[in-house]
Amino acid sequence: MTNLCRKCWLAFLALSLSAFTVLLKLKAATNLKQSPFLPPPPLRKVRMEPYLNFSITTTWNSTPIAQPFNFSLEAGETAGTDPTNPPVQGLTVNMDLPFFGVDPAPAGPPGQPFDQLWNYEVFEIFLLGPEDRYLELEFGPYGHHLVLRLDGYRQVAETQLPLQYTARRTGDRWTGQAFIPFDYIPPRLGWMNAYAIQNVSSSERRYLALYPIPKDDLAASLEPDFHKLGYFKPLNISVLYPAGWKQPLPERWSSRAAPVQETPVEQT
What we know:
This protein is mostly beta strands. The chain has one helix at about 5-30; strands at about 50-60, 65-80, 90-100, 120-130, 135-140, 145-150, 155-160, 165-170, 175-180, 190-200, 205-210, 235, 260.
């Protein structure tokens, strides 16, 4: 083979290799929906987790139960009080729970706060921040709710706060959804627990807990007490939001007010 032919052959191979490389880039770009000749788009700030899912599977004193009580937390928002106001940010609570129906429906109108809702069939969530500042949320299968803001152990600063909450009963289950604005949630939220109370029969009232009292500690806890903050466990809601998100500082918690009342010990 002459030198001229050899040079032509090498040039043809180099051109073919270049064309093959371009074809590979085009194929990869088609799969990635982007041009190989442009820089990749910036990463989107997507939520890390759409939901935080939980199941209550024990009584308050660590005895297993047959039917789990399932609920989840997700990032939520609702329209502002005025069309010109921005949306209100918060958490959405979703519930899917067994319905026993032994307790009567509370006498108040559904969708409104109902005092001492803990005396009925109820599901509760406690959201805790530093310095024993926490929010107690109670939800009933008939659409009633009760929200208490506590600034210190059992020290109620506000009660019967308004809330967006709906519930629906279907056979032996009930579902509910509530929106909790960040203005209600204690600053630097970091711990939680959840509970349920119901009469499973005319003679048996049952108290359940997501994070129950360990059996080794039961000697000092003869009765259920939902305000035992030392048994709460960490909650990280930042995984529901884009990277770098920080919890809004709620004006409602900006100062420490004198307690409106102290919750009675017999109230769980």
